[in-house]
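Worked problem 6 (solution included).
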Amino acid sequence: MRDRAEIRSLNMKIHYEFQNGKLVAVAGETEAVTAQRSEETTRKDEISRDKSLKKEDVPKEEEKPYTSNSGLEDKEKQILSEIRKIESELQTFETKRKAEEEQGFDSVRKVELEERKRKLEMALNQEKLKMILEDTLNTFKELIDKQTQTSLRILNANASVKTGHIFDAKA
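Solution. The predicted structure is:
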């Protein structure tokens, strides 16, 4: 990133394909929206405040990797509850808008909350995407199994017909 620039949003698009029965990322795009910072001291305050927020906000349950659908649903519910908490705090900021304009301190907190909300929404979308991808992968596995079974039945039917013709020819 350029000097004195702050990332406002980061958009990523990943294109997937099935290759040999596995989902593989084949292409992608990344887009970042930045804004120029006015003061270096505010950045130092943001960094220190961000570090303290991360220590407070990160529950120990998030450290466990989830592999089952129920685990993904639990994580999804947890992210949704955090988003609701942030939205309620943002609503309190909206009601105190005049006081906020007088104090620059609260506006920084509001920006941090909005960024955290966006990140949580992205995490929620990723969890939903993981669930959809797992379901799709399972569906493709079932389809491949059924296709294999059908192919084997057709081959067995053709083999039995050929042996039947051999017996007919000799008789």
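Discussion: The chain has two domains: 1-38, 40-170.
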